[in-house]
Design goal:
By secondary structure, the chain is of the alpha/beta class. The protein has two domains: 199 residues, Isochorismatase-like (Rossmann fold, 3-Layer(aba) Sandwich); 54 residues, no CATH class. The chain contains ten helices and ten strands. Strand 9, helix 10 and strand 10 form a beta-alpha-beta unit. Helix 2 packs parallel to helix 6. The longest helix has 15 residues. The relative contact order is 0.17.
């Protein structure tokens, strides 16, 4: 690479709103990078980045994940160091509105109070009148909660308002975004951006299908894209929720095709769990490693 990293990003400004270089300063540098077009890669490698958004950054986000800022730093270094070997970047983005089943605005108790963040609301809670929905038909919400009751999900978790469309919290972390855009221009490809989580009546942790899925929706364009690559490196936020669920959904879809499931490498030092989920997350990825042949690696241990 004929452009220095510090010309593209300033790692000291990771997770600091409004301090990054404008993309208009970054793109012209890409023409000087002297990188071959991605389409010429003999080994196709995808960097799949889950929800690398401001609202998941500690200190600035409404749902900050401890360590996420350092994850971004390591991921930036990984992408820069391997720019000529990463064929393309795919990013998912949590895409939300206030009136969704997992936000406080959709609920109140008999005293008109909203649920606190991290409250879990179950089918039985609503049936007993402990919580009622507003702004939407109760029957639709009950169908969702009944479905969750009959699975291992129990109920819907109420989250702080996060990744609301049009807000600064919705945006990709700016230093990573600048490097991604630089990389895409330098290697002549278009980054793949996935918007997920717009359904009023369901959470969507994974990138393939929502938690409550009466329409049996499957994001087939992503599935089809996955098959194109020889290696898939996955990172992002949070490891305990959206990263883990995205990996599980893709792997389950291809569970009878080990030639696909063994393509996945989880960058363990570029993704952090929500506080309190450290052990369960580590154990869950160990299961994916055992059952599907997923590799777990540090970004610094990857060498092409």
């Amino acid at each position: 690479m004929d452009v220095n990293l510090n010309e593209i990003v300033d790692v000291s400004k990771i997770a600091r709103l409004g301090q990054s270089k404008h993309s208009g300063e970054i793109i012209p540098l890409a023409s000087k990078a002297n990188l071959k077009p991605a389409i010429d890669d003999k080994v196709k490698r995808l960097l799949l980045v889950i929800d690398q958004q401001n609202d998941f950054m500690p200190g600035i986000g409404s749902l900050g994940v401890p360590g996420a800022d350092q994850d971004v730093k390591r991921l930036i270094n990984f992408l820069y160091r391997n720019a000529e070997h990463i064929t393309s970047v795919m990013c998912s983005m949590d895409t939300h509105f206030p009136l969704q089943i997992f936000h406080p605005a959709m609920w109140e108790n008999d005293q008109g109070q909203k649920p606190d963040p991290f409250t879990v609301i179950t089918y039985d809670d609503v049936s007993k009148g402990l919580w009622k929905t507003i702004h939407c038909p109760p029957s639709k919400v009950l169908k969702c909660l009944e479905s969750l009751k009959n699975s291992d999900k129990v109920g819907v978790t109420i989250w702080p308002y996060h990744c609301l469309v049009g807000t600064s919290g919705f945006c990709l972390e700016a230093e990573f975004a600048n490097l991604m855009l630089f990389h895409s221009y330098a290697r002549s490809y278009r980054p793949l951006i996935i918007f997920k989580g717009t359904d009023t009546y369901s959470e969507m942790y994974g990138i393939i299908e929502p938690e409550y899925n009466p329409q049996n929706f499957v994001n087939t364009p992503i599935i089809n894209a996955i098959e194109y690559y020889d290696e898939i490196y996955i990172a992002g936020q949070a490891a305990s929720h959206c990263v883990l669920e995205s990996a599980k959904q893709i792997l389950k879809y291809y569970e009878d095709m080990p030639s696909v499931t063994t393509k996945f490498i989880f960058l363990g030092d570029c993704s952090s769990p929500v506080a309190g989920f450290e052990k369960t997350t580590k154990d869950a990825f160990k299961v994916l490693e055992k059952d599907y042949g997923v590799k777990i690696s540090k970004s610094t241990d990857i060498c092409f």
